[in-house]
Amino acid sequence: MDMVEKTQETTTREERKTRRRLERQEKQQAKQSSKSEGKIRIRLIPLWLRIIIVLLLIVGCVAVGLMVGYGVVGDGNPSDALKWSTWQHIIDLIKKP
To answer: Do residues 70 and 81 touch, judged by C-beta distance below 8 A?
Structure first.
């Protein structure tokens, strides 16, 4: 009698596991179908504008870094870091043997 009860108990456990797995699969399928049927997302800022903004931020950060490095660390005038003559002088120093 005990063997029959254990067999029935394991069967019910397996059935419960199977039911839970099927329920989870149905929920996942319902989520996926609702996502595909959902509303279309309209971006506030278009992708091309985001790229331009990021590039401008990079250029701005480089300029500020140059000015801080030249003005604070190098004891020079910070606005001189953005002048072409300063860079030409640095290039001449590097190229001269």
So the answer is: yes
Q: How many CB atoms lie within 10 A of CB 66?
A: 16
Q: Whole-angstrom Cα distance, residue 70 to residue 80? A: 8
How does pLDDT run along the chain (97 residues), one tens digit per residue? 555 555 656 667 788 888 888 888 888 887 776 555 667 778 898 999 999 999 999 999 999 999 999 898 888 888 889 999 999 998 999 998 6
Query: Where do the structural domains in the chain lie, given as residue ranges?
Result: 45-97
- Alpha carbons 74 and 81: distance in angstroms, whole number: 10
The span from the first CA to the last CA of the chain, in angstroms, equals: 100
Sign of CA dihedral 45, 51, 55, 61: positive
Entry pTM: 0.53
